[in-house]
Automatic annotation (TrEMBL):
Membrane among keywords: yes
Protein name (database record): Binding-protein-dependent transport systems inner membrane component
A GO biological-process term: transmembrane transport
Highest taxon of the lineage: Bacteria
Native organism: Mycolicibacterium vaccae ATCC 25954
Keywords for this protein: Cell membrane, Membrane, Transmembrane, Transmembrane helix, Transport
Gene3D superfamilies according to UniProt: MetI-like
A GO term from the CC aspect: plasma membrane
Length: 266
């Protein structure tokens, strides 16, 4: 019983959770490898062949250029979504009259899938990187905005009263009191937005684009280059894993900064 308790304690730490995640990832890859090893269909090729194709194509100048194009639009769209979501969320969460005024409009706009606005975005920006950035920002802004607004709406009354007593107002109040208090909620919204940004990036690149991961996957599927298509899917999965993993490290550091009492062992 003592051994089980000690093991549970170790696995509950940050390193323990990382180790479990690595074990799970390797387990999924091993299952994929075994299930596809004796595959006789081109639609589900062996994982070893997909990895070989990925190493051959995605390390070439053309493959790297497509990855760079995708990451550029994703970064720009996600950055715009975070800045806009945090700014508007802070305003809505702290001003009830503004929340009541804009809530119906926000609910209407949030209910529209970003992919449904692809024709509108193409008319507005043409087939350009701006079109893809617009769609990514539009789809990713909602989790950040709503999570930030919820955090700003639930500010600790004692903290607010203390800031008022010390005459901390205006931008100083927002940067030194409100923003640190809502930071955990902002980070939750960003965590939700990251995988969503990958989905919107690929979707926007499948329509009228001339480069990017989504473009390569679509072209490979249309020309029956199924190994290239699968290698693009594999690269997408790797990018999603790396983005989430790196963000978890940043998130952990920021949460420690916002609350020094926070510990990974909790």
């Amino acid at each position: 019983m003592t051994t089980l308790t000690a093991a549970s304690t170790v696995l509950s730490t940050g390193r323990g959770r990382t180790m479990l995640g690595v074990i799970g990832a390797f387990g999924a890859l091993a299952a994929w490898f075994l299930l596809s090893a004796n595959s006789g269909t081109a639609y589900f090729p062996p994982l070893s062949a997909i990895i070989a194709e990925a190493a051959e194509y995605w390390t070439t100048p053309q493959g790297l250029a497509n990855i760079q194009a995708s990451l550029t639009t994703l970064s720009a769209g996600l950055a715009i979504a975070i800045i806009l979501g945090v700014t508007v969320g802070l305003v809505i969460g702290q001003l009830p009259i503004v929340e009541r005024m804009v809530s119906p409009t926000l609910e209407f706009a949030r209910a529209i899938p970003s992919t449904a606005l692809i024709p509108f975005a193409m008319m507005l920006f043409g087939v350009s990187p701006e079109m893809k950035i617009f769609l990514i920002a539009l789809g990713c802004v909602w989790p950040v905005l709503l999570s930030t607004a919820d955090g700003a709406r639930r500010l600790d009354a004692t903290m607010v009263a203390s800031a008022r007593a010390f005459n901390i107002t205006g931008p100083r109040r927002q940067f030194y009191v409100v923003l640190p208090a809502v930071l955990p909620r902002v980070l939750v919204g960003v965590r939700i937005a990251i995988p969503l940004s990958l989905i919107l990036m690929v979707t926007s690149e499948m329509v009228g684009a001339q480069k990017g991961l989504g473009f390569v996957i679509t072209q490979a599927q249309a020309t029956f280059q199924l190994l290239t298509m699968w290698s693009g899917i594999l690269v997408l999965g790797i990018l999603g894993f790396l983005m989430t993993f790196l963000y978890s490290l940043v998130e952990r550091r920021l949460l420690r900064w916002s609350d020094p009492r926070r510990s990974d062992t909790r």
